[in-house]
Amino acid sequence: MIKSIGQSKFIQKGIGEGLAAWLKLVHDTSRFTDVPADLYGPIRGEYPYIVAMWHGHHFLVPFMRREGHEFKILISRHGDGEINAIAVTRLGLGLVRGSGARPQRQHHKGGPAALRELVATLKGGQSVGVTADVPRTGGVAGLGIVTLARLSGRPIVPVAVATSNMIQLSTWDRAVISLPFSRGAFVVGDLVHVPEDADKSLMEAKRQEVQANLDAAHRTAYGMVGRKFVRAGP
Question: I want to staple 16 with a disulfide (CB 3.0 to 4.6 A). Which of 33, 54, 83, 90 is the partner?
Answer without folding.
Answer: 83
